[in-house]
Amino acid sequence: MRPQFSIIFFTTLAGMAQGLLFFLALINLEAPVFSAPFISMLALPVCFILLTLGLVASFFHLGHPERAWRAAMMWRTSWLSREVIALPAVMLLTALTFLYIHSGVVPAWLWAAVIIGTLALWICTAKIYQCIRFIQEWSHPSTLTNFILLGLSSGGLLLEFLLLVWNDPNIPLGISLISGVNFILLFIALNLKLWIWRRNQKLKPKSNLATATGIKGNNIRQTSMGFMGGSFNTREFFHHQTDRVISNIRKIILLMAYVGPMVLLAFSMNSPSMTQVALALLMHYVGLLAERWMFFAEANHPQNLYYQRVS
Q: What dihedral do alpha carbons 13, 146, 304, 217 form, nearest 10°?
């Protein structure tokens, strides 16, 4: 598939905001842990900005952005419609939490609603792709797990960075502990990604050239993509990159999204440093962009059996 950069930015920015919101709600669910000024003046505004940027980015892949409101009308059957509803709902919960912080203590039910809302948005986003059964790379529970793990790891790194920026000497949770949690999340996400790549390499199309073209025979050979020039099919369902480029992007993903941040977090567990955590967050997000690009690029649409490239 040809990756859409608007969707890449939407899923990574919104996922990071969801991870930050999830940790804020989970840590403060039983009793206030982080200070009200930190949550209201830094953490929640950052969450809302990221969600807003993600929402704006999602409009750029629409043919008619002015009709975007109609996407919510099919909520009974469409995961995309449910996502369109879930994202503003999470933004509303963020704003409501902000108001409660200024008026007093945030009730436990609101933190619980934030946790449920972030999980629901992850589910809706991942299910858009997971429900497409004929794309085997996506049609697997690992799609949802990968979205949640990367959202939690990016949100956890952002939380750690914001705490260091806030520079409160009375942080109830030690930075070393948060670094350790983020390290574990990245380690689990790395192993899941390696497993996904191995699985995808072993996948075989359920169809073949004969069933794709409707031509009966055991010895069918493709000599043309079916068009003298390009078409929608050849533009939208190919990433148009060489195997060498794909291999290099995989290396970038491993280094930037996982290994590099894990090394920096290992040092941060011993002696927390804002520079180390900031670099880890930056590297991780760059790696996330590459990872999400690869998520779309490695999806092999069955139509490619017919509209395949010819060397």
A: -170
What residue ranges do the domains of the chain occupy? 5-215+230-305
> What pLDDT score was predicted for residue 310?
47
For 264, counting Cβ atoms within 10 Å of its Cβ (0-12 exposed, 13-18 middle, 19+ buried), the class is: buried
Q: What is the mean pLDDT of residues 135-153?
A: 95
**Helix boundaries (H) for 243-308:** 243-252, 260-270, 274-297
In angstroms, what CA-CA distances link 255 with 27, 39, 142, 248? 30, 32, 21, 11
Rounded distance between C-alpha atoms, residue 40 and residue 60, angstroms: 30
Torsion angle defined by CA atoms of residues 170, 175, 177 and 178, in that order, rounded to the nearest 10 degrees: 120
Burial level of 247, CB count in 10 A (0-12/13-18/19+)? exposed
Among residues of the chain, what percentage have pLDDT more than 90? 57
Instruction: Write out the CATH class of domain 5-215+230-305.
Output: mainly alpha
